[in-house]
Here is the input.
Amino acid sequence: MQMICHFDVTDYTAWKDAFDSDAEARRNAGLSVLQIWKHADSSTKASVLLDVNDRKKADDWLKRSNALSSDDKGTVTGSTAYFVKSA
Here is the structure.
């Protein structure tokens, strides 16, 4: 299973630095980054494809990330996440 996350951010570079510094928390949640996209026409949008090893831990990571703005150093202004499977 994978998860696609879309982020509205204050600045892509600042967000990416904050995202990278959260790598240990993602690993502990059983998430592996497969791909990161910077939107071609915006410096305030990013998308991430993650491999999900444990759905419950991934859900917990999402809840924690949404609740703790310090995790993203205040760079995320909005986000959505979708769990997906290959068809």
